[in-house]
Design a protein that fits this description.
Elements lengths: L7 E6 L10 E11 L37 E7 L2 E9 L1 E6 L4 E5 L3 E5 L4 E6 L9 E11 L10 E5 L6 E5 L5 E8 L1 E2 L2 E2 L17 E7 L4 E4 L8 E8 L3 E3 L2 E3 L3 E5 L5 E5 L4 E8 L7 E3 L2 E3 L2 H14 L20 E3 L5 E3 L3
Antiparallel strand pairs: 1-20, 2-9, 3-8, 4-7, 4-9, 5-6, 5-8, 6-25, 7-10, 11-12, 12-15, 13-14, 15-22, 16-21, 17-20, 17-22, 18-19, 18-21, 23-24, 25-26
Length: 343
């Protein structure tokens, strides 16, 4: 049992997906060592022995997920929450029922408010035909409050070069780098989330930070701005991590107090942590697959609405579209606005 003074309140092993606390719904860490790609941007390797369409086994260190040619997630609906997709390595090709499209990676983040309903696909094109195509990403589901569950869908691109990175050195000169995807730290604020996000409200204290610590580094995580915020540290890379006086020997999710500073100390290898923090919404959560509402009746309505409208239909020639091999990182929004960044 933890005492009232312990910084670490609870630990749980990391599963698939990772358990989260209100206002978050879940977080999944995809890490796949894909081989070179073929002419169709799928893996240049045999797919024998895989449960194609439902391949989550991790054979040979990678998964096709629901993809049949290209790994990924062909068209599927969402209603009532948001997805925050952080691509650390590799690329994602996005297409949706509004006609929007994107290719993003290399530290980019897509923040999608599903709201009243959207259908989208998320495919992982393997562009390099000679070398391996490693892919690593987080997808976080952030809930919406009842009054915003049916807002018009909207996505924002947070391109890597717009996302703040704060570097701190300890007394021995060892570094800790914090990537601020949501919230603020050390006077730097993340790009704005979509307008109806729970994170867009000034009093919800949402923070999504990726923390990378050099071997042996120490860093003090400052207390949260809101006393009711719930804070979880997901220790997913490294041999060990110390939070205050609490030593973590395995990869776990650690619920920590948010009303006090917390001293972190990395073990003898590079250490990585994902921080999720926010003030809880505090409303009932009823989930059925890709729909997250407040009541069973609302779930039934979501299913009926999807069957009736397909949330706008699917304007693409296949369920799993990928963009051209030579296409760079870009976003084409539903209103026709196009953003283009580096390669």
């Amino acid at each position: 049992m933890s005492s009232a003074n312990d910084i670490v309140q609870e630990t749980r092993p990391l599963g698939f997906p990772w358990e989260t606390a209100d206002p978050f719904l879940f977080c999944v860490h995809h890490d796949d060592a894909y081989p070179p790609g073929n002419e169709r941007m799928g893996p240049a390797a045999s797919l024998a022995g895989r449960n194609i369409g439902q391949d989550f086994a991790g054979k040979d260190g990678w998964r096709m997920y629901h993809g049949e040619v290209v790994p990924g997630f062909p068209q599927h609906p969402h209603r009532g929450f948001e997805t925050v997709t952080i691509v650390r390595r590799g690329l994602i090709d996005h297409a949706d029922s509004l006609g929007a499209a994107a290719r993003f990676g290399a530290g980019d983040v897509q923040w999608l408010t599903a709201g009243g309903g959207i259908v989208h696909s998320e495919m992982f094109p393997l562009l390099d035909r000679t070398n391996p195509n490693p892919a690593e990403l987080f997808q976080i589901w952030l809930n919406l409050p009842a009054e915003d569950k049916l807002v018009p869908p909207h996505f924002a691109m947070l391109w890597s070069d717009t996302i703040p990175r704060c570097v701190f050195l300890d007394e021995a000169g060892r570094s800790t780098e914090v990537t601020v995807i949501a919230g603020s730290l050390d006077g730097k604020r993340a790009p704005s989330p979509p307008p109806k996000s729970w994170a867009s409200r000034p009093d919800t204290d949402i923070a999504i930070w990726s923390i990378r610590m050099a071997p042996g580094a120490t860093w003090t995580l400052p207390k949260a701005a809101h006393p009711q915020s719930v804070r979880t540290l997901y220790f997913f890379k490294g041999t060990s991590l110390r939070i205050g006086e609490h030593a973590l020997a395995g990869h776990v999710a650690a619920r920590v107090r948010s009303d006090v500073d917390a001293r972190l100390q990395a073990g003898d290898t590079e250490t990585e942590i994902l921080l999720l923090q926010g003030r809880p919404i505090g409303q009932p959560v009823v989930q059925y697959g890709p729909f997250v509402m407040n009541t069973r009746e609302q779930i039934q309505r979501a299913m009926m609405d999807y069957q009736r409208t397909r949330f706008g239909g699917w304007p693409w020639p296949s369920d799993d579209p990928v963009h051209g091999r030579e296409e760079g990182r870009f976003a084409r929004h539903a209103d026709g606005q196009v953003e283009r960044v580096g390669s």
